[in-house]
Fold this protein.
Amino acid sequence: MSFLKNLKNSTATDQELVRLYKQDGDIRVLAELYQRYMELLYAVCIKYLKEQEAAKDAVMAIFEELVPKLLKHEVVHFSGWLYMVAKNFCLMQLRSQKQMHIFQDTEIMQLTENLHLNGVFDKEENLNQLSKCMDALSPDQKQTVQLFYLQEKCYKEIALITDTDWNKVRSLIQNARRNLKNCMEKNIISD
Amino acid sequence: MYGEKYYFRLNSRLILIMKEEKNDIKFSVEEIRKYLDGQLTDQEMQALEKAALEDPFLSDAIEGIGESRNHAYSFESGVADLQNRLTQRIREKNRKSAMVLLFSKWKIAASVIFMLGFTALIIIYISNKSHRSEIAKSFKNDSGTENLVSSPTNKRTDTSAKSSSATLSANSDSDKRAIVSILHTERVIKSGNKKLLTLKLSKIPDSQIKKQDDQSTVYLSKPSSDSIAEPATSNSVVKNDVSSPTILQSDKKNEEVKDNNLARSAYKSLPGNYIKGVVTDEKGNPIPNAAVSIKGAKKSVVTDQTGFFKLYTIDPEFANQIIVNSVGYESFSVKLNTDSSYTNLIQLIPASTVLNEVVIKKNSTESVIGWDAFRNYIDSNKKILTADSVLKGIEVISFIVNNKNELSAFKIEKSVSPAHDAEIIRLIKTAPPLTIIKGKKKRLRISISFN
């Protein structure tokens, strides 16, 4: 893109570009940064809005939202923050559509759970806890987690080994992660 | 069952994976595409899957690209289009800022000219005023000595009036920059004078009108090239017939008219007269797409995604009464702060809460059976209707209940079908009577869902 040639920021990190934008308010810097994630954002918008044209409009509208927002907010992880802004935008759009025609899929409104363990593994005493929690998992879940995280098999391989559906493998791993997280947190609180 | 070594390995991997460290996305769309096409090796696939479990951004993007494969246009063409749009957007911005720079020079020039014109206008106005009072004074002296106006004095006042108009026109000629604004206000003065003039003339007795006719012929015999001279001279004609205190008063009135017009025109040209605010629900969540309008005016705006609205008005005084409407909420009428720098907060109440004010009586003598009973009544009876129709949705109806338990002014606010509307109205009319606790009448809103 022509306007990007003037800027020698293509090697700059997100953080540097954010700082530069906050400093000068130059929209071209923001565009450079935005462009890095535009394809992914477009994909995310397609996922939520289901329509390509609506997704395109959303991507442009999110850019307009960023112009003032990024100047105001203190952003540490740009990609994570950007994702949240984009997702909220899409959900708000869906919600406003929902007000027009009352009935629509409500599942989509649910926010994905935060599956991060927030550093609970950093503590040595939690090591034993993990083995207990692993044993508490269902045999299916335990097997897939082992295959995925220890033997580093991809979903397709696991599906072949265990003779299960690809989607089943993915949901087994996601559920196992959630269970592990809940198990660990419960025990940390009870300690 | 498992050795300690095993758990250490598992643990260290989980630590790496589950630590809340959000790195920049390492996977490109190209890799996602390959992944979906099955072009990656098993290890590469596992790495991407692992990363997707950690990063919802990535996992959503993978889903989105997968989804786009069911669409008519390719993902790539969409991206290309977006890149064009973004480039366009940046160019626009650059052009705009250039335009602003260009315009700002013109703005300064324009405001200088405007200021010059305005000062000229004030000077002219003041000189005109002093001239008029001079005329009045000179006439006062005249009327002091002579009771009936003789022709020489007429000529004198006439000429003095002429001279005042002459200075006026000379002044306006000398300052062409102020042409537009000056001409405008002069026209205002002129029309103002004419009105007063006709009023005065109607009160003049017949005998005096004859004299005045003579006067105007004298005047007409030497017509002025300047139209402004006309009201000025005719004013002096009137002065001949009425007493001087009234003249001064009429002058004052003219001034007032002029002042008002000036004030109004200046007011209208003021930029940024708007009311702004945020519309939320009772929990403070923004309500987008709520209609905000001025009572009695056609103009309305819709709130954005954050519930924010900005309503431009010519005169904030007219905009005292603001009406906010949103589906599922009570229509809300409110007097807002019209200061542009103030953000008004408007909280809407969900439509159903109004129902709390209402109780249901089986009839006027029996005890209150409560809202639940009414609901049950509607729910059990509406089943007849759903057998007739396969349409689903929510029907919202409102009507007025007065203190005689009479129902009137039925209004369908959300319709499923005309058949549903008719049935609901029939149901409510035949339902156990509704009464209100206080007040003379209340509008009730009921929503009934058909599933």
